[in-house]
């Protein structure tokens, strides 16, 4: 058992070194300098996971690691490439520069500030943002191999129970527009997080504005 474990650990360490070597330097992360960055990282990370899985599953540990690594790399590259393309198309087609797109390599997160989405204390989507949401819906139809999570967030102003309810209603309102745009009901999940997941300080107006948001999380399924 000990002899079989060593090649696995060596392969994992070697693959992780490749990930570090091929990733963008820290100061370029998210700069958009490499349009295929997530495809490359997906291939490498997929290779690591595939190698480990293949090694564990195979009686011939070395052969299983190689085969698993190859399969994992192909799958990871395909997902990363699709996310890179979808990200680029969304950046091209969305008309509001305050809509933020984050590509983590295994998902896309489209973040919409609530002050452009909704009037104060309202869960009715502003007509000016409906077009951008329909653009996201068109993208989701072009890339059908994904599920979608719509997550509402608030700041901590007001009563926590009310904020929770408001975040749920707003997430549902965004999901309704996506479904109006043709996205299947079965692909969408909605969540309200209320004030529980801030990304900025609730002690400042700027931080509270960051916390009031709806996130559309696109998760590839294959």
UniProtKB/TrEMBL annotation:
Signal peptide: 1-19
Swiss-Prot/TrEMBL keywords: Cell outer membrane, Membrane, Signal
Metal-binding is among the record's keywords: no
Subcellular location: Cell outer membrane
Pfam family, one: Gly-zipper_Omp
Listed InterPro entries: Bact_OuterMem_StrucFunc, Gly-zipper, OMP_bac, OmpA-like, OmpA-like_sf
Domain OmpA-like positions: 105-222
PANTHER family assigned to the protein according to its UniProt record, in alphabetical order: LIPOPROTEIN YIAD-RELATED (PTHR30329:SF21), STATOR ELEMENT OF FLAGELLAR MOTOR COMPLEX (PTHR30329)
Protein name per the record: OmpA family protein
Source organism of this protein record: Roseovarius pelagicus
Taxon lineage: Bacteria, Pseudomonadati, Pseudomonadota, Alphaproteobacteria, Rhodobacterales
